[in-house]
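Hi L.,

You mentioned the student needs an example of a multi-chain input paired with its predicted structure. This one should do, with 594 residues in total across all chains.
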Amino acid sequence: MLRLIMTRVFLGCVTLFAVTLLIFAATEILPGDVASAVLGQGATPETLAAFRIELGLDRPAYVRYLEWLTNALQGDLGIAMTNKREVLATITPRLYNTLFLAGYAAAIAVPIAIILGIIAAINEGKWIDRAANILTLGAISVPEFFIAYILILVFATNLGWFPSLSTVYGDMGFWQKIHVVALPALTLTMLVMAHMLRMTRASVLAIMSQPYIEMAFLKGLPRRRVILRHALPNAAAPIISVVALNLAYLIVGVVVIEVVFVYPGVGQYMVDGVSKRDLPVIQACALVFGGAFVLLNTIADILAILVNPRLRHPR
Amino acid sequence: MAIQNSLKNPPISAKIGMVILVVFIFFAIFAPLIAPYGEAESIGKTWASPSAEFLLGTDNIGRDMLSRIIFGARMTLGVATACTLLSFLIGITMGLLAAVAGKAIDQILSRFVDLMLSIPILVFALMILSMFGSSLFTLIITIGILDSFRVFRLARSIAINIVVTEFVEVARLRGEGLWWIMVREVLPNALPPMIAEFGLRFCFNFLFVAGLSFLGLGIQPPFADWGGMVRENGRAIAFGIPAPLWPAIAIGLTTISVNMIVDWILSINARPSGASAEM
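Structure written out for the whole complex:
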């Protein structure tokens, strides 16, 4: 089992390395280089050449990649082009904010989604299952900003319970923060919960159709006991990987929601960076998102191995 | 017999979906004839409330909301359809190639796709659009290519089961070329299960384009598009004005309609393994 886990960790590291390569390739090697992207159409060949030298673009790509990678590993993410501030100093508090929002949403979404998913699955076809199906399908089908605006209209404009913009400061108290960030967290919760609930339901249903569950019913065991003792322990593995998978989705879902609520997180930083074509900012944010994505996917794999006895001894 | 019956009599949800979709497509095609006002015509106050004159009110610079939604159907539906078509063209070609052309090519293509899917698609798209700018052309190419990796996985997993059947074996023994086997033997059998997937990928791309436009990085003004309209009118919500909700409702209605039609198609032919409805 240890070997299997080590393989996963190693694979995760390889993927992480590939992600850095990909980020670098997408931003610097593709045709239409940074200099012309930043200066735009009106640039003369001379200014373009001067700017290229200033950015170090006259050197070969692999040299720049290695330099960028070693700097990033040492915590030097470069200096933002637009405001000449260090990217790391800007991104650290923002990363904390994003993790706070994501953690907030996850703390609400995970328990509710799992419990409701299981309830929907064991009541397959009954009204509660249908209601869950329609609601989650609705939540998945509408864009995230629609949910966000509905929540703002109801809870901020009409009821006045929460602020419509989630501005947070460094010295804000914890409970005050919880209050201010409530609406974006709720939006995110609904999105992730919908996915998580559907996938939990599907994986519990897959187990409920196994022969040994049918056998348990045929033995005459009460329904309660079949579900609690036979089905749920085996459903743990798929549910855990469903959760980890959806947390990876949460990391990305945060981008649009941060923009709606003007929340100072990494997602908004990246969108700002993209509209201003601020390359070091884009690279750093992509690194953060890509890294988190790989990390959560690797954790999902490892947890799936740990929980599932059959995966512990590969043939 | 049962299949033919359900083809003729779609369930009520699928009928509703088709009606809504047909209305939006009608909007998209005949926008200048239907819309009461022009696409960029500023004719009222800022955020006027709905009235007989302006059925859905006006937007942030006094343009008629309903007309903008009717014109917006063009861009929003058009771009998402173009992306999905491109993604299926690339994804199916590569997927069939991977299944038919042998282990080495399959490994190269599959590992490449694994690599490309290791970065969240939104982050990837943001990086590329920041480099190339959000012209309509780059937008469609970028999303089409990024989405094709997922189509590739499905197409490959379907085609792999077809490649081992007798009639493909016969074609190989007959000495047919790679292209013939892909197009004449495998493709016709791989397409039916892909139809439902087309609807789902369309929904995904549609929401994705709307999201990018909402971030200001997708379809650019002066074209009306639903995601961008939500962005332009976003601030109205703080005053209790529902202006940004109309285009958002249009987006939601479209995806729900397509989903309801897809559900019906899925209930006719069973979903292949390896397909995923979400993400």
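You could point out the following to them. The two ends of chain A are 11 Å apart (CA to CA). Chain A touches chain B through 55 residues (CB under 8 Å).

Best wishes,
N.
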